[in-house]
Amino acid sequence: MRKKISAVIIGLSVACVSVLATGSANSHGYTDSPTSRQVFCAKGTVKNCGEIQYEPQSVEGPKGFPSRGPADGRICAGGNSRFAQLDDPRGGQWPATKLTAGQGYGFRWKLTARHATTDFRYYITKDGYNPAKPLTRADLEPQPFMSVPYGGRVPEATVTHQGAVPTLKTGKHIILAVWTIADTPNAFYACSDVQF
C-alpha cells in the first residue's frame, strides 16, 4: 500500500512541476498592427534579427511596467537577452507604420496561445524622442494612451482594440504595447515604430 501511495505522490508532484514549468510558456503573442519589430524580423523585412525571427510571439518578460518589468534599454525585448536585436535602434532605421495624429486606429494582437489576462496597455514616446537610442522609461509618456482591462478573462486568438492615436505627435515614435498575463509573473512586450 505504501508503494502505491508513494507512486501517486510522485506522479502528482511530477504533474504539478510540469504545470508550473509550462505556465508562462502557454501564453504567447505579438502586435501586427501597427507592425511590431518582431514581425518585421519574422517576415524578413529586417535582417540580422537572431532568434526572434523564428519566434516573434515570445517577447515575454516581467510584468508590472512601468514601475517594474524590463530594464531601460531592454524594453523592446522584454528584458530577454535572446532577443536583444529588438532593442538595437539600428540608427533609427526600423521600418515605421505611417499614422496621423489623433486618427482612430485598430491596435491588433495575434495570440498564438491565449491566457487569462489582466489588461493590454499602449504607451507612446514623448515629443523629442531620439529613435537612434534604445528605448527607456524616460522616453515614454508617463501614462498609457489606452488601457483595455480584461479582469482575468481569456482573449480571442486575434484581439483588436479600437482607439485613437495620440494627438499633437509629429515625426518618428515608438508605440509600446504590453499584454499583462493574470496568472503568471510575466507580460508580453511589442515595440512598433510609427511615423506621424
Task: Compile the SSE list and pairings.
Elements lengths: L1 H21 L5 E6 L3 H6 L17 E3 L34 E2 L5 E10 L3 E8 L21 E4 L8 E7 L7 E10 L4 E10 L1
Parallel strand pairs: 3-9
Antiparallel strand pairs: 1-4, 2-9, 4-7, 5-6, 5-8, 8-9
Organism: Streptomyces syringium
Pfam families: LPMO_10 (PF03067)
Protein name: Chitin-binding protein
What does this protein structure show overall?
The protein starts with a helix and ends with a strand. The strands form two sheets. Strands 2, 3, 5, 6, 8 and 9 form a six-stranded mixed beta sheet that branches. It has a three-stranded antiparallel beta sheet with strand order 1-4-7, with no helix packed on it. It is an alpha+beta fold. The protein has helices at residues 2-22, 37-42; strands at residues 28-33, 60-62, 97-98, 104-113, 117-124, 146-149, 158-164, 172-181, 186-195. A hairpin with a 4-residue loop joins β8 and β9 (186-195). Helices cover 14% and strands 31% of the residues. It has two helices and nine strands. It has one domain: Coagulation Factor XIII, Chain A, domain 1.
> Which CATH architecture would you pick?
Distorted Sandwich
CATH superfamily: chitin-binding protein cbp21
CATH topology (fold) name: Coagulation Factor XIII, Chain A, domain 1
Give the CA-CA distance, first to last residue.
Answer: 72 Å
> Under the CATH scheme, which class?
Mainly Beta
Q: Report the order of strands and helices.
A: HEHEEEEEEEE
Count of discrete structural domains:
1
Mean pLDDT: 89
Report on the biggest sheet.
6 strands, mixed
Approximately what portion of the residues adopt beta-strand conformation? 25-35%
C-alpha-based Rg, rounded? 19 Å
Can you count the helices? 2
- Give the total of beta strands: 9
- Low-confidence stretches are 3-26
Note the overall shape.
globular
Domain Chitin-binding type-4: 28-194
Organism: Streptomyces syringium
Signal peptide: 1-27
Keywords: Signal
